[in-house]
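Regression test case RT-17, inverse folding.

Input:
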């Protein structure tokens, strides 16, 4: 029994390390998006969620003159931070321009390629670029 008490933390750690590659690959999948295409939308930022593993935003845009919403998944908070952004930089009601890889299912939204804020600052999603072969 004493040997079990000493060895179980090591066994648990080894098992946990074995799971890490699966989690890393799972959260970096772009299979839900058409990475061969990009679309652009101008709109108003309704919501920005700064969180791991990916941030996201809800954009209100006009579709044939009617306001609609789309959800855009984006890079990690670390990627935003490395480009000089903080949560306070994303203000509800701000006019933005987003370039994104559309959802494969055809619903509005997708994976962010880049974002331009009303003050001219831009963010480029390097995770999406790598998934798209650096294009």
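Golden output:
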């Amino acid at each position: 029994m004493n040997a079990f008490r000493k060895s179980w933390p090591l066994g648990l750690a080894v098992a946990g390390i074995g799971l890490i590659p699966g989690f890393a690959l799972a959260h970096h999948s772009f299979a839900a998006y058409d990475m061969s295409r990009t679309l652009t939308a101008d709109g108003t930022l309704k919501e920005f969620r700064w969180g791991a593993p990916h941030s996201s935003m809800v954009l209100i845009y006009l579709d044939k003159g009617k306001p609609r919403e789309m959800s855009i998944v984006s890079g990690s908070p670390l990627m935003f931070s490395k480009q000089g952004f903080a949560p306070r930089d994303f203000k509800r009601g701000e006019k933005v321009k987003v370039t994104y890889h559309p959802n494969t299912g055809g619903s509005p939204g997708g994976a962010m390629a880049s974002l331009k804020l009303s003050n001219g600052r831009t963010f480029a999603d390097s995770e999406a670029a790598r998934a798209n072969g650096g294009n």
